[in-house]
Amino acid sequence: MRLPNTDTLLVNQDGPVLHITLNRPDSRNAMSLAMVNELMALFEAVKDNRDIRAIVLRGAGGHFCAGGDIKDMAGARQQAAAGDSDAYVALNRRFGEMITAANQQPQVVITVLEGAVLGGGFGLACISDVAIASRDATFGLPETGLGVIPAQIAPFVVQRIGLTQARRLALTGLRFKGEEAQRLGIVHEVVDSSELDNALAQTLATVRRCAPNANRVTKQLVLKVGHEPMDSLLDQAARDFADAVNGEEGQEGTMAFVQKRPASWNQ
């Protein structure tokens, strides 16, 4: 499989796992438009690849992501001054397109969070299927303190932790650490920085025990909750269940259970 070339990301495929590292350490991996576009290209390139079962997002240099790139804001300001009234809209909406793609990615998306997890980085944490954080990571939505709004991020924060807590975080710009992020439901596991790699390895081992297509269909199902009528959703879920039982994975999973051995996909 040929992956897109990237300048702001380090990309490495390790068997069924695609590791993507945000690689702008001098700016604490602030998310530039170039980075947004490169992430979107990668997500699109692997979307239908059944051999890739998990995507790991992390940051270089001890930080995950400190938010949006101020230089892009300055560039949009120049475009607006030159008569492009939609420059800010296009810039902001592009990030929303990327985070939507990440949210809907068929693979299991895992974030490894340390250092700054702010703004756009906070948004990526909120769409991940599994979020592992360092105890001393710093989370927050600083936008309102800068006179702007978390426009593309806020809806995903509400989905992640509920309206009450999302309002508090967005309207105060509160900064907090990993254990509070876990209490709020933003992250699933909090460890010391030295244990991040071990925690990731354990999570990837659990993902490998799950059948690849069953995971894809299950993720699609849970993402539809609240967006489709329950009866039609359950009707489709029953059809998907029947397909799974009669499919190769269902047959292999049942046989592996009976024979007390790992399933063929557990590798």
TrEMBL record:
One of its GO terms (biological process) is isoprenoid catabolic process. InterPro entries: ClpP/crotonase-like_dom_sf (IPR029045), Enoyl-CoA_hydra/iso (IPR001753), Enoyl-CoA_hydra_C (IPR014748), Enoyl-CoA_Hydratase/Isomerase (IPR051683). One of its GO terms (molecular function) is catalytic activity. Pfam families: ECH_1. Belongs to the enoyl-CoA hydratase/isomerase family. This is Enoyl-CoA hydratase.
